[in-house]
Design brief:
The chain has 329 residues and is an alpha+beta fold. It has helices at residues 68-85, 108-122, 129-139, 192-198, 205-210, 212-225, 228-247, 258-274, 297-306; strands at 5-10, 13-17, 22-24, 29-30, 34-38, 44-51, 58-61, 64-66, 90-97, 151-154, 165-169, 176-182, 278-281, 288-293, 312-317, 323-327. The protein folds into two domains: 5-171 and 320-328, 2-Layer Sandwich (Ribosomal Protein S5, domain 2), CATH 3.30.230; 176-317, GHMP kinase, C-terminal domain (Alpha-Beta Plaits, 2-Layer Sandwich). The strands form four sheets. The protein has a six-stranded mixed sheet with strand order 8-7-9-6-1-16. The protein has a four-stranded antiparallel sheet with strand order 2-5-10-11. It has a four-stranded antiparallel sheet with strand order 13-14-12-15. The structure holds ligand DP6. Residues 15, 18-20, 28, 34, 106, 108, 140-142, 192-193, 196, 283-284 line the site of ligand DP6. Ligand DP6 is lined by residues 15, 18-20, 28, 34, 106, 108, 140-142, 192-193, 196, 283-284.
Length: 329
């Protein structure tokens, strides 16, 4: 097989119906399906080359060499790729994010999606979209959703083979915008991987998981029909349900800060009192993703900036799939 140097880009995504808790923590088989939108403008750019002269895999993120747990997680994916391609060379992985790592936008989704695309191609493999999504999933569950473009559903599946994501609508289907209200640039104390593993300790997780097919159906339909009211209610409910599970896990995880609640309450007021199409969703951190329509994005961004506890606002539109941008062969 021919190996080469391949560069790929991938976008992070924001989940409307959240992934929280695994049936299998090693394979990252989720307890429930999830739906997200890729975030255009924000991206990870990764170059992978397998080199016979390298004694170990090398990882450089934003110009700095990374070792330890970060490198191990990348080598785990490279090992899967080497197994599939039947090669033994170690790889150099050079990766850059165009968004600040302290901005509370998870980089693991775009990072593992870009790694799966660049790494598999550099190893001489030609994987299908579902195969790439499954490979990215092994590195970070949400990365499975950064492989296809636009609005994406990760079907729960029953095994490694059928737990992958696919596009339910292209990026230009619905002009949604994510205005990310940054209320804290500090790193979260408990990462998602640890959070997933304790999700079953919450007595609320079983109910959240059992109700997931209903929420997925409502969200999918709202996206396909561009029904913002239905979309807003289900997105806020799903985020609140996930945080209820987090707060009632052992140990308890409280990601919201007072400023997060300020934003969530304001958004709800704008929608109910002034019919501004905006709703909130919060991941495993304090920052609040405010989803709105492109036509209202300016007013929403302006209002968010007026809230005292909001430090900054990032604006992202629906983004495309993970793609190869350079292949040295
Ligand atoms: C709250 O995909 O970051 O953002 O598989 O351990 O890398 P790992 O977890 P990750 O979990 C994402 C959790 C979430 C919800 C979501 O994106 O669906």
């Amino acid at each position: 097989m021919n190996t080469s140097s391949v560069t790929a880009i991938a976008h992070p995504n924001i989940a409307f119906i959240k992934y929280w808790g695994n049936r299998d923590n090693i394979l990252r088989l989720p307890m429930n399906g999830s739906i997200s939108m890729n975030l255009d403008g924000l991206c990870t750019r990764t170059t992978v080359s397998f080199q016979p002269s390298l004694p170990f895999d090398e990882l450089i993120i934003n110009g700095r060499e990374v070792t330890g747990a970060g490198l191990d997680r990348v080598s785990y994916i490279l090992d899967i790729i080497r197994g599939m391609a039947n090669i033994h060379d170690r790889a150099e992985v050079i990766t850059e994010n165009n968004f600040p790592s302290g901005a509370g936008i998870a980089s693991s989704a775009s990072a593992f999606a870009a790694l799966a695309v660049a790494g598999s191609k550099a190893a001489g493999l030609n994987l299908s979209e579902p195969e790439l999504s499954r490979l990215a999933r092994r590195g970070s569950g949400s990365a499975s959703r950064s492989i296809p473009g636009g609005f994406v559903e990760w079907q729960v599946g029953t095994t490694d083979e059928d737990s992958f994501a696919f596009s339910i609508a292209p990026a230009d289907h619905w002009k949604l915008v994510d205005c990310v209200a940054i209320v804290s640039a500090s790193h979260k104390k408990t990462g998602s991987t640890e959070g997933h593993s304790i999700a079953p300790t919450s007595p609320l997780q079983a109910a959240r998981v059992a109700d997931a097919p209903r929420r997925l159906e409502i969200c999918r339909k709202a996206i396909l029909e561009k029904d913002f009211d239905a979309f807003a209610s289900i997105v806020e409910l799903d985020s609140d349900m996930m945080h209820s599970v987090m707060m009632t896990s052992t140990p308890a995880l409280h990601y919201w800060k007072p400023a997060s609640l300020d934003v969530m309450n304001s958004v709800r007021m704008w929608r109910t009192n002034e019919s501004i199409p905006a709703c909130y969703t919060v991941d495993a951190g304090a920052n609040v993703h405010v989803i709105t329509l492109e036509s209202e994005a300016h007013i929403v961004e302006k209002r968010l900036r007026e809230i005292k506890s909001v430090e900054d606002v990032l604006v992202a539109h629906a983004g495309g799939p993970a793609t190869i941008v350079k292949n040295s062969d």
